[in-house]
Amino acid sequence: MYYSELDRQIIHEGFVAQLMKDYTKIGYKILNNHEFDLVLKNGEKILAIEVVIVGKKKDISLSRIEKLRKLAKNKGYNFSVEYCRTEKTTEIKFEGLEQIIQQYFEDELPSEFDELSTHTSIESVDDVSLTKLSIHDDRSIEAAGIASICLHLQWGSEGDLGRDDGAEASETVTIKFDAYLLGDFTIDDFNFEII
Questions:
Q1: Measured by CB atoms within 10 angstroms of the end CB, which terminus of the chain is less buried, N or C?
Q2: Which of 37, 66, 88 is at the close of a domain?
């Protein structure tokens, strides 16, 4: 979702209101809380959501997200971060780039993701928005942009999960990346930062 640069608090409140509307449509009930932007319940499942405004400057620190994730876990909640983008980008298409980035991360899981749980895996790469795309004479490609990485987080083994001694969650993080691809569309160099 994209917005022009308006007052960040108004954007934040509007995004939370839209999430409330979307989740209540699919059967969730809103719970009162003062720790997360939104806490929802559907049957036995309780979901805590924190909204992060992504634009020219970061709205929240990773250490705060980690504290909220731990708080949610201690309360027995699932935890999710929802990102709201405030800067509009020019649309550049690169068919299949999501799958190329996902394969790269599956082959070489970055420590930034791996340390989030005992068993972290990539569920999907979505919402790739390119800010730069250059194709060179040798057919190599430089690409830069933003992408959402959906992670599956698991604490404990499969056996631990079966005994209710482990836990699972999904987390979506947004990255800013620069990639260099060879002519066969394999990634030769990939740099990123979590935003």
A1: N
A2: 88
Element of type H or E holding 188 = strand 187-194
Q: Where are the alpha helices (DSSP H) in the chain?
A: 8-25, 62-75, 97-107, 111-114, 158-162
Which of 88, 118, 137 represents a domain boundary (last residue)? Answer: 88
C-alpha–C-alpha distance, residues 184 and 150, integer Å:
26
The C-alpha atoms of residue 147 and residue 99 are separated, in whole angstroms, by 12
Spatial CA neighbour of 124 closest among 146, 148, 141, 97: 148
Which pair of tokens denotes residue 123? 């569920």
Q: Is the whole model's pTM more than 0.70, yes or no?
A: no
* Alpha-carbon distance values, 33 to 39, 57, 181 (Å): 7, 27, 46
Q: Could you tell me if 165 and 175 lie in one domain?
A: yes
What is the tens place of the pLDDT at every residue in 119-145?
Answer: 888 999 988 888 888 988 899 999 998
